[in-house]
Amino acid sequence: MGESVGESVDPTAKDAEHGRTQGPGHGPAHGHGRHAGTRRLLALFRPQVNRGQLLAGALCAVLGFALVTQVRQDDPALTTLRNSEVIALLQEVTKRSNQLESQGRDLRSRLEALQGGSDKAEVAREVAVERIDLYSVLAGTRAVAGPGIELQIADPEGGVRAALLLDTIQELRGAGAEAIQVGDVRVVAGTAFVDTDETGVRVGDELVRAPYRILAIGESASLARALAIPGGVLEQLRSRQAEPTVVERTELRITARHTPEQPHYARPAASASS
Amino acid sequence: MIAVLGLVVGIVAGLVVEPTVPAWMQPYLPIAVVAALDAVFGGLRAVLDGIFDDKVFTVSFLSNVVVAALMVYLGDQLGVGTQLATGVVVVLGIRIFSNAAAIRRHIFKA
């Protein structure tokens, strides 16, 4: 189909030896010489308006048009594909969808881990805040309120000594007092009770004199009971004519605060678990 | 010359008009274009061989396109669409190569 039989379209024969018949015809035309092909190619570029040329031109126009259109086409619509192409496309889409599915699962689990992590951080933060509250109560750095007892010791004869005050404090602690104030001093673990030459007792850094006012926050009934046991603090105070009175209260405010100091000698020891 | 002009005109028209190919034609257009290209290369070779006939060229052009499209259609119906289309393209490619080789021999004498 690629071979055409016809006559050359060169009207002005450069080759003088051969006469040529013009127009469409049949039978092979002969061109001889080494440059016959090139001549014919050049002759191609000479415009000749005859029916054959126009038809060839029209067909080439159609070819050019179709060529450009096909090249510029976007992806064909699914309906134009053959069955096997559609199946291949489906397989590819399925594979891709599976990949995306597993990626999605991975990302979701990572998101949960991260969210859980942030929840854990939140919980840790809340625990830390609770601990701050707790430790500040124990360390006496904040004012606290709650039920408890108020112990007034009139002590007109000055018989109260540091040892007795300390016993009182220990008794209260043993009964579950969570915060204790003597006079204007907040009593914490490191608070010392020292006898002085003057009347009164040195509690911590301050000198506290009679009448002593001791506030303790805790379960008021337990605290009162602890003080009142036979041979206990109240008996001892009475035996020294100190005239103690205990009042249970539902709402006490301990406003005295203790300023903690950095320890000079003690430091946290590394434990086996942390 | 008119043929070359025609080709240029067709290409420019395709660029300007930018038509959308109708759906039924879409599987056949590429094969038809290759078949038409084969006919054009054959015609060019015939010119260089001095045996060009416009009637033969026209008939070969049209019949190439029709037969190629028919083969693709038949292949689709039989269920061997892809394979048959591949075969048609391969054969057309071989013919284009051989025509191009003949043209090259004419022009470059090599």
**Alpha-beta content class of chain A:** alpha+beta
Q: Strand portion of chain B, in percent? A: under 5%
Distinct helical segment count of chain B: 4
Helix content of chain B: over 70%
Helix/strand order of chain A: HHHEHEEEEEEHHE
Helix-residue proportion of chain A: 40-55%
Low-confidence stretches of chain A: 1-30
The Cα radius of gyration of chain B reads 16 Å
Helix and strand content put the structural class of chain B at mainly alpha
Instruction: Name the pair of protein chains with the most residues at their interface, and give those residue counts.
Output: A-B, 59 and 66 residues
| Overall pLDDT confidence of chain B | 90
Q: What's the gyration radius of chain A in Å?
A: 55 Å
Overall geometric form of chain A: rod-shaped
How confident overall, as mean pLDDT of chain A?
80
Strand order of the largest sheet of chain A: 3-2-7-1-8
| Poorly predicted residue ranges of chain B | none
- Count of individual beta strands of chain A: 8
Give the overall silhouette of chain B: globular
The biggest sheet of chain B amounts to: none
Helix segment tally of chain A: 6
Total number of β-strand segments of chain B? Answer: 0
Textual characterization of the structure:
Chain A has 6 helices and 8 strands; from the N terminus they run H-H-H-E-H-E-E-E-E-E-E-H-H-E. Chain A has helices spanning 36-44, 51-71, 83-139, 162-174, 220-227, 233-239, and strands at 144-153, 179-182, 185-187, 193-195, 201-203, 206-208, 212-217, 244-254. Chain A has a 5-stranded antiparallel beta sheet. A 3-stranded antiparallel beta sheet of chain A has the order 4-5-6, covered by helices on one side. The longest helix of chain A is centred in the middle third of the chain and has 57 residues, at 83-139. In chain B, helix 2 runs parallel beside helix 4 and helix 3 (54-78) packs antiparallel against helix 4 (81-108). Chain B is globular and about 45 Å long. The model of chain B has no long low-confidence stretch (mean pLDDT 90). Classes of the chains: A alpha+beta (274), B mainly alpha (110). Chains A and B meet through helix 1, helix 2 and helix 3 of A and helix 1, helix 2, helix 3 and helix 4 of B.
